[in-house]
Amino acid sequence: MNSKCEQIKKQLIDMIDQGIYRIGEQLPSEIHMSKQFQVSRETFRGALKMLEEEGRILVKHGVGTFVIRPLPPIKSTLERLHSSSEMIRSAGLTESESMISLAKLPCPEEAAERLGIVSGTPVYILERIRKANDEPVMLSINYLPVHLFGIGFEQPTFSGSLLQFVESKLGVSVNRADTEICVPLHIDRNCQQLLQYPQTTVLLLKQLHYDEGNRPVFYSLDYMRNDVFTFHLRRTR
Amino acid sequence: MNSKCEQIKKQLIDMIDQGIYRIGEQLPSEIHMSKQFQVSRETFRGALKMLEEEGRILVKHGVGTFVIRPLPPIKSTLERLHSSSEMIRSAGLTESESMISLAKLPCPEEAAERLGIVSGTPVYILERIRKANDEPVMLSINYLPVHLFGIGFEQPTFSGSLLQFVESKLGVSVNRADTEICVPLHIDRNCQQLLQYPQTTVLLLKQLHYDEGNRPVFYSLDYMRNDVFTFHLRRTR
DNA sequence: CAGTGGTCTAGACCACCGC
DNA sequence: CGGTGGTCTAGACCACTGC
Question: pTM above the 0.90 mark?
Answer without folding.
Answer: yes
